[in-house]
Amino acid sequence: MQYTKIATVMAGIFAFDVALAQDFSTRTDPSVTPWVDPDNPLVILRDPNDPNAEFEFGRNSLPNPEREAGPIDLQRYDLNPFGSQFPTMFGMPIALNKEDLIAGDVDIALVGSTADNNAVPGTAFGPNILRGFIRTAGKQLVTSRGGGKMERSRTGVVDMYLHTHFNEVNEVDYGNITVNPFEVGATTEEIRRVINEIYEGGAKPAMFAGSHDGMYGMFLATADTYGRKNFGVIHFDSHYDAIRNGPFGAYAHNGNGISNALIYDVVDGGDIIQIGMTSFGPGEEDLDWLNSQGVRYHYAAEIERDGWDKVIERVLEESKDMGQILIMIDIDIIASNYVPGTGGREVDGITPREMARMIRALTIQHNVLGIDVAEYNPLMDSRSFQTAEVVMFLLRNFIAAEAAKKRGITDPLYYAPRLVRDE
Ligand SMILES: [Mn+2]
Q1: Structural domain harbouring 25
Q2: Residue 59 forms part of a structural domain
Q3: Which of 113, 137, 143, 230 could join 153 in a cystine, given CB atoms 3.0 to 4.6 angstroms apart?
Q4: How far apart are the first and last CA of the chain?
């Protein structure tokens, strides 16, 4: 009796299993996995019935026929000594499209990247947090109130290395670049589109905050506008960002901007200089590959052995013939005690001052087409937002050096004579 009962139960379980396999299994049924391309299981498809499949990012920068093209000053006061300014980058006027850039004769378009693809999310919030940090970055300087060319006051902040003035360069806040939150490739295309728009407006993009997958989008835009393999890349990072496989089969991620540039022939290996790498990797094989591509580099080991000044000297020499360059900075090149607010923290980095000196030197020596100061994650920052201050400081040094160039200063290691006493 007892055995019969068990046998009956067992038979029932067995029958249930068979029924599941025969009638309910979904494992080989493509109708429940429409994202699998039947011709290529490695391809993940988007839903063609979803109106967002071809993500257009619904833009709100349609030229308003009532509005005269040109930068728009949002500030109530000419001078906002502390926190009273409307939060734009450095308190600068905003611009919405390339017509505004052209009408304003804009030199530098500060544009936030909200790409957010690091291990710890949060860089998406970086740009708008930085807009609160005017106090460390200069005071309100702009006197223009509307369209057309910007007019500037002669009061405000003077850089204390070069003694140049914010007013010597026309900067605008070009807002943020949005993302497709689920698809880095689509985000890359949007970064490419907006950076190209800035180039078409005759300005230099200064991108900030977003995760480092944005690097490849900036390379693409620069290749679109200035020509493939026709510009140099000076890449500052604690990480080599040339992972050739993965992670997990993704084409674009925050660790392969450099390898993508090389593999897809966007930047010539001989036109790439990498500086600051520490952390784990690259291993022998990746180093061999970077060597075979002609990439030049200055690892943390070299910085420790020979000193930063020597590295600056070598980079200036090696890049001398590049002419036009991009400066690509992952802020994790800076020691993590200065920049807790970044996803790839490394303790053995350089100081903000050292990074700023290099930015000034490269900017004075070269035609800098654009700059990126990436990987600012305010959710990892200290409560005193020390990382935000570093990001603003670096951008400010770029602006100061652009002003120096306008003045005709050509010595990359220039210091304003009245700020240094030699006697
Ligand atoms: Mn990086």
Answers
A1: 2-33
A2: no
A3: 143
A4: 109
Determine contact, residues 404/162, Cβ cutoff 8 Å.
yes
Whole-number pLDDT of residue 86: 86
CA–CA distance, 378 with 392 (Å, rounded to integer): 13
Cα 145 to Cα 141: distance, rounded to the nearest angstrom = 12
One domain for residues 26 and 172: no
Q: How far is the CA of 363 from the centre of ligand 1 (A)?
A: 21
Tokens of 305: 């052995």
Using the CB atoms, write b or e for 152-181: b if 16+ within 10 Å: beeebbebebbbbbbbbbbbbbbbbbbbbe
On whether both 203 and 328 belong to a single domain, the answer is yes
Q: Are the C-beta atoms of residues 375 and 211 closer than 8 Å to each other?
A: yes
Q: What is the pLDDT of residues 272-284, one digit of tens each?
A: 999 999 998 899 9
Does 75 map to a domain? no
Tell me the pLDDT tens digit for each residue of 387-422.
Answer: 999 999 999 999 999 999 999 999 999 999 999 987
In this structure, is residue 52 part of a structural domain?
no
- In 307-381, alpha helices (H): 308-318, 352-365
For the entire predicted model, the pTM comes to 0.90
The residues near 286 (Cβ < 8 Å, ≥ 6 apart) are 240, 242, 243, 244
20 and 131 assigned to the same domain: no
Q: Are residues 28 and 93 in the same domain?
A: no
Ligand 1 centroid–CA 237 distance in Å is: 6
Residue 138 has a pLDDT of 45
Q: How far is the CA of 277 from the centre of ligand 1 (A)?
A: 10
Give 97 Cα–ligand 1 centroid separation in angstroms: 29
Examine the pLDDT at 366 and tell me if it is beyond 70: yes
CA 327 to centroid of ligand 1, rounded, Å: 13
Number of domains in the chain: 2
CA of 109 to the centre of ligand 1 (A): 22
Q: What tokens appear for 13 in the block? A: 């379980």
User: For strand 204-209 and strand 367-374, is the pairing parallel, antiparallel, or unpaired?
Assistant: parallel
Rounded Cα gap, residues 267 and 258, in angstroms? 9
Average pLDDT of the segment spanning 320-349 = 97
Phi-psi domain of 109 (left: phi exceeds 0; alpha: psi -120 through 50; beta: other): beta
Whether 102 and 13 share a structural domain: no
Residue 54 counted as domain residue: no
CA–centroid distance, 178 to ligand 1, in Å, is 19
Query: Is 90 exceeded by the pLDDT of residue 260?
Result: yes
